[in-house]
Amino acid sequence: AGNGESSKIQDFVSCTGASIDLAKSFLSSNNWDLNMSINTYYATAEPSTSSIEEESVPPPQPQVTERLFQPRYSGRVRQRRKPSSWQNQPSLAKLFKPPDDINFKGSFEQAADEASSAGSWLLVNIQDPLEFKCHQLNRDVWNKAEVRGIIEGSFILWQQENSSKHGQWYCSFYGVREFPHVAILNPKTRQIAKIWENVEDVVDVVSFQESLTEFLRTNSRASSKRQKREHTSSSTQDDDLLQAAIQASLEESATSSRGPKSEIKQHQGKQRPEPGPDVKVVSSVEISPDIKAAVKVSPEPDAGPSVTTLRVRLPSTMGGEQLRRRFFKKASIQNVIDFVWDHMLKAENVPGKGIENLVLKTTFPRRTLNKKATLQDSKLLNAVVQAEFDD
């Protein structure tokens, strides 16, 4: 081969890596055209090379979805709990077990009503399962016999997780952002009476026990329903006597224009003797026809999706009784006032003011409700309101 052919052979070999004989074969068959020979080589060699590469690459593995841990409930069907689930769990789970035996099962309103009827304070604990301090609270505080004794005697414990329905409502309503959250609430007004800002004071059982004892010492409440009823009866009797004195004064003023004062005193001496301790004066107080005008109250509806339950607390001067009734969600606040007024008339417990002075107010935060608004617009679905008389 000439120098030109030898040069093309070397270029072909260096470019393709083929042997000299194979280079001569491709160049001679393409009339020693270097570019055409290289293109022909790759055109004929590429299928075999790619087939070898395809055989050497393994096929992709199928996609698989797996769960890293077993959730508490799988799917929509709850797993049936075993009777002795905690006994079969490891000892670590027993150590951090929540206080289910003393924890109130129900909503916040139900817990508050239970505490109010029992004359106890409401002790609220909101926990975040991702915070170790919450589990430490279960282990070091709630499971201690000393703390349990204080709670069972003076508190209703309501513990919820922040992710539960009731826990989310409480955190949104009271603006809770840090956990564990521990607070004492007045069950009647739903206002926070004490809150622990420092977490260390809560998980330390000695410090927490001292805080509860100090709170009970400075904030006494009736310890039984009997004491609460006695206090209510006493205050009601005082109000009755005051009401009788006011009515007597009004009658004295009206009679003074018809006769001498001596006749008035003589008439009063015969008709209004001094009330004894066992005499209920309210029934003898005359209520003006304008004040005790009857109202029309619609029948109580049956439970359903368009019906809600409302609890109404009467004024403390009337014993603080709590009424409970179902209303349509589209019923107005005036409909509820009519129901309360009708109850007062039947119980002969009207405090000398007209229905136009009767209003409804929310418990917390305190605000007077518009009488023309509906329960749904006022966000009073399954709520508690306070009935009061405005001046």
From TrEMBL:
Residues 219-280 are annotated as: Disordered. Residues 303-388 form the UBX domain. One of its GO terms (biological process) is proteasome-mediated ubiquitin-dependent protein catabolic process. GO terms for cellular component: nucleus. Gene3D superfamilies: DNA helicase RuvA subunit, C-terminal domain (1.10.8.10), Glutaredoxin (3.40.30.10), Phosphatidylinositol 3-kinase Catalytic Subunit, Chain A, domain 1 (3.10.20.90). It comes from the Eukaryota. SUPFAM superfamilies: Thioredoxin-like (SSF52833), UBA-like (SSF46934), Ubiquitin-like (SSF54236). Signal peptide: none annotated. Pfam families: Thioredoxin_7 (PF13899), UBA_4 (PF14555), UBX (PF00789). Residues 260-277 have a biased composition (Basic and acidic residues). GO terms for molecular function: ubiquitin binding. Residues 250-259 have a biased composition (Polar residues). PANTHER family: FAS-ASSOCIATED PROTEIN, UBX DOMAIN-CONTAINING PROTEIN 7. This is UBX domain-containing protein. It comes from Lotharella globosa. The lineage of its organism: Eukaryota, Sar, Rhizaria, Cercozoa, Chlorarachniophyceae.
